[in-house]
Design brief:
120 residues; 5% strand; globular; binds zinc ion
Length: 120
């Protein structure tokens, strides 16, 4: 029996994931610019943001008290917000597929390599 099958590793939960997804939903709701909200792009954003924040693993057998306590941790909350806004910008400027919005002035029908990345 493989080591990985000997234990219930499914009980390992990353609280950062839940917090990032909640915050991602909040930010996308109020995001001022047009951005593709397809499954691929939103999951790309989530993955980038999750890689940027410190993971918060706990064993779910012990309950969710730890997670609840962490949510008051404003420094960690700030790092999540920042990671998400950065991730949104990254995917918006460099989507993994052609993104077309119905803007008549900017039709990029044949350009697969859009030079739309604007430095800040
Ligand atoms: Zn998309």
């Amino acid at each position: 029996m493989a080591f990985i099958d000997q234990y219930d590793f499914d009980a390992l939960k990353n609280d950062a994931e839940k917090m990032v997804l909640q915050e991602l939903g909040r930010q996308l709701e109020v995001y001022p610019d047009k951005i593709c909200l397809c499954n691929e792009c939103v999951l790309d954003i989530a993955a980038i943001a999750l890689n940027a924040v410190k993971p918060l693993y706990h064993v779910s057998l012990l309950g969710g008290l730890y997670a609840a306590a962490i949510e008051d941790h404003s420094a960690y909350g700030e790092s999540i917000k920042e990671a998400i806004s950065t991730a949104i910008e990254k995917v918006r400027n460099n989507p993994s597929h052609d993104v077309k919005f119905d803007e008549p002035d900017e039709s990029s029908d044949s350009a697969d390599d859009t030079a739309e990345v604007q430095g800040h």
